[in-house]
């Protein structure tokens, strides 16, 4: 009897093919949605976690990815630096970052403003593939310090346009360089200035685009040293949790362990995930409704054949099993097609939008297979039950 | 082989109810070849469906098959009994169109849990269709389709073979061939055969003719 579902599927090739396609599209949509969202967020999280620090201090807001502006004044540096755990100073260094946006590679990129002397904390052991770091000789940083003199602040009007323009330098990563076909010496317009690419670093650093934090503060904040967030490197990484609590209490800011960044990032996208899951779920429900309808139509259309089987001695269970088998066959073929479509979509997306990461994990493929099998079974239960309940005498009289 | 008493069967409910069998009594012995005749609508096919355990009588005192009472049996037991003891041949052949002739015959063997071991091929050979075994029903003539249906029914070597107008859709030459085949199978395997027919020439092949009128056997 096992071959009968296959014979039935092959007998109606177009209808079976369309049903397989419907399941395939739904499964592919689910896998790609999951792979795209998780892949991109995981990639961002991995990059942030590559920073040589233990804690992140963020504005007390819900979404870490949309952190923008510069809500932390200079006093926070002191507050953080003076934190103590068990009467001991626990902070080795406070690393301020100022964010802005810059359009490169066909989309908005987060521009990391960092101190040129602290850039290695962000780059880790990644090497420069070309060029040099920005403000390599610390000329602009020293210039601002000189202009400030003994005062805490410099007068922005004392900095000439030529001096600012000379400091407009960027370091980008190899992935963005490849996508945007950028090379050292290329220029990008942003913030009303012409930024020069002076270095290209191996991909995987926290940001894709870096510039001088002093320059960003000058351009955006008239030199006022506010920051978007801080990384904190501790004297002893083993006291990270205690230090986080202390710093959170002192600053009233949101303090997260760097190792938790991925979780925090995913939490920030809970609503979007909910939306994506609902959309994928609805797509799958529609797909399986199509299967249900197909199987129901099959039962109605094949009432006479079911009557024959029953007359020949097929039990109700055999009829139910046959219907389930046919549905499972369609759904498993659909799931396999969906997986192939998902991998094709991954190639397509990564070709069209190379900065997006579509990571199809084995668990998504297994989930798709499970959904295909469970969905195929559930979709066939009612039609199968109807088929099994058919009165063979009545079924034989129908055509 | 078959002992029925007080068989009633009604189609529909309420005012639309039509009683087709009105307390029919019947006895057919082992190895008999019986023809059932009667006008259209007298309940011949319904009787065959009741004897084949395809349909349950609305009411019955008794319907014994090979010594076993079948009235009140649950569906699973009736299905088991049907697959083990009964072979059915229909006027419209009732072959599954999606599988080949030999697979149609194998299907009956599989449903009965019998091993295949070339039994289906041997049966098709017996009915003269060895060469056409891989063809689907739609690729066979109607005479050939009925031969496949007989091969399917006979393959499981049932104790009771029920045939509902087996020649009803055939020309006289094919009808003659089919009746020869049924007679040969009956003689070769010694099965009880009940054939429902309108055709007196077909009925003449039987050892005994039962005539039905108004839902009863009227001339035994």
Radius of gyration of chain B: 17 Å
N-to-C CA distance of chain A: 22 Å
**Helical content of chain A (DSSP H or I, runs of 4+):** 55-70%
**Mean pLDDT across residues of chain A:** 88
Relative strand content of chain B: 15-25%
Number of domains of chain A: 2
Evaluate the radius of gyration of chain A. Answer: 30 Å
Residue share in helix of chain B = 25-40%
Biggest interface: A-B, 25 and 26 residues
Number of DSSP E strands of chain A: 12
The helix count of chain A comes to: 15
Structural class of chain B: alpha/beta
Residue-averaged pLDDT of chain B: 87
Give the number of DSSP strands of chain B.
Answer: 10
Please provide a written account of the structure:
The complex is a heterodimer of chains A (399) and B (220). Chain A is an alpha+beta fold and 399 residues long. Chain A has 2 domains: 4-42 and 270-397, no CATH class; 60-252, no CATH class. Chain A is built from 15 helices and 12 strands. In chain A, strands 1, 4, 5, 6, 7, 8, 9, 10, 11 and 12 form a 10-stranded mixed sheet that branches. A two-stranded antiparallel sheet of chain A has the order 2-3. In chain A, helix 2 packs antiparallel against helix 14. Chain B is of the alpha/beta class. Helix content of chain B is 34%, strand content 25%. Chain B has helices spanning 44-51, 75-85, 101-111, 119-126, 142-155, 172-189, 200-203; strands at 2-11, 18-28, 33-37, 62-65, 68-69, 86-89, 160-164, 192-196, 208-213, 216-217. In chain B, the strands form 2 sheets. In chain B, strands 6-7-8-3-9-10 form a 6-stranded mixed sheet, sandwiched between helices. A 4-stranded antiparallel sheet of chain B has the order 2-1-4-5, with helices on one face. In chain B, a hairpin with a 2-residue loop joins strand 4 and strand 5. In chain B, helix 3 packs parallel to helix 5 and helix 5 runs parallel beside helix 6. The longest helix of chain B has 18 residues, at 172-189.
């Amino acid at each position: 009897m096992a071959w009968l579902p296959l014979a039935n599927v092959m007998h109606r090739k177009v209808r079976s093919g369309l049903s397989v396609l419907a399941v395939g599209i739904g499964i592919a949509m689910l896998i790609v949605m999951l792979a795209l969202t998780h892949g991109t967020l995981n990639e961002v999280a991995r990059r942030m976690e590559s920073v040589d620090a233990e804690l992140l201090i963020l504005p007390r807001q819900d979404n870490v990815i949309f952190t923008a502006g510069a809500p932390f004044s200079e006093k926070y540096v002191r507050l953080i630096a003076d934190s103590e755990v068990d009467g001991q100073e626990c902070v080795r260094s406070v690393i301020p970052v100022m964010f802005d946006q810059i359009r490169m590679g066909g989309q908005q990129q987060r521009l990391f403003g960092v101190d040129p002397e602290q850039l290695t904390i962000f780059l880790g052991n990644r090497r420069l593939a070309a060029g040099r770091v920005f403000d390599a000789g610390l000329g602009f940083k020293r210039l601002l310090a000189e202009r400030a003199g003994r005062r805490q602040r410099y007068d922005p009007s004392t900095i000439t346009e030529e001096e600012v323009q000379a400091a407009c330098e960027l370091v980008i990563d190899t992935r963005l360089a490849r996508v945007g076909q950028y090379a050292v010496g290329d220029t990008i317009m942003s913030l009303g200035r012409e930024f020069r690419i002076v270095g290209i670093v191996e991909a995987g650093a926290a940001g894709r685009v870096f510039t001088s934090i002093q320059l960003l503060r000058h351009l955006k904040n008239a030199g006022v040293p506010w920051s978007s967030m801080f990384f904190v490197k501790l004297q002893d990484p083993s006291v990270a949790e205690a230090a986080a609590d202390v710093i959170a209490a002192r600053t009233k800011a949101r303090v997260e362990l760097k190792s938790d960044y991925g979780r925090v990032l995913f939490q920030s996208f809970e609503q979007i995930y909910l939306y994506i899951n609902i959309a994928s779920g609805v797509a799958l429900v529609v797909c399986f409704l199509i299967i249900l309808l197909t199987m129901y139509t099959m039962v109605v259309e094949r009432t006479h054949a079911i009557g024959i089987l029953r007359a020949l001695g097929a039990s109700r269970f055999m009829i139910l099993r046959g219907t389930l088998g046919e549905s499972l066959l369609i759904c498993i073929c659909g799931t396999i097609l969906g997986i192939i479509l998902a991998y094709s979509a991954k190639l397509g997306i990564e070709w069209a939008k190379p900065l997006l990461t579509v990571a199809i994990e084995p668990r998504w493929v297994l989930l798709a297979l499970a959904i295909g099998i469970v969905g195929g079974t559930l979709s066939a239960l009612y039609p199968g039950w109807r088929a099994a309940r058919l009165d063979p005498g009545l079924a034989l009289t129908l055509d | 082989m078959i002992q029925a008493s007080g068989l009633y069967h009604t189609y529909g409910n309420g005012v639309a109810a039509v009683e087709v069998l009105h307390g029919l009594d019947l006895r057919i012995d082992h190895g008999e070849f019986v023809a059932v005749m009667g006008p259209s609508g007298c309940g011949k096919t319904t009787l065959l469906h009741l004897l084949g355990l395809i349909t349950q009588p609305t009411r019955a005192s008794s319907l014994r098959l090979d010594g076993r009472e079948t009235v009140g049996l649950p569906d699973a037991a009736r299905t088991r009994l049907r697959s083990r003891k009964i072979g059915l041949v229909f006027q419209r052949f009732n072959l599954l169109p999606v599988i080949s002739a030999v697979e149609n015959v194998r299907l009956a063997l599989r449903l009965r849990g019998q091993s295949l071991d070339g039994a289906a091929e041997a049966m098709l050979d017996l009915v003269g269709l060895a060469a056409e075994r891989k063809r689907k029903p739609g690729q066979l003539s109607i005479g050939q389709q009925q031969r496949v249906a007989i091969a399917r029914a006979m393959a499981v070597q049932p104790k009771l073979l029920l045939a509902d107008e087996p020649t009803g859709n055939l020309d006289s030459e094919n009808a003659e061939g089919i009746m020869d085949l049924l007679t040969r199978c009956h003689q070769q395997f010694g099965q009880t055969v009940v054939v429902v027919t309108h055709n007196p020439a077909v009925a003449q092949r039987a050892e005994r003719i039962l005539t039905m009128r108004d839902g009863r056997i009227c001339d035994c």
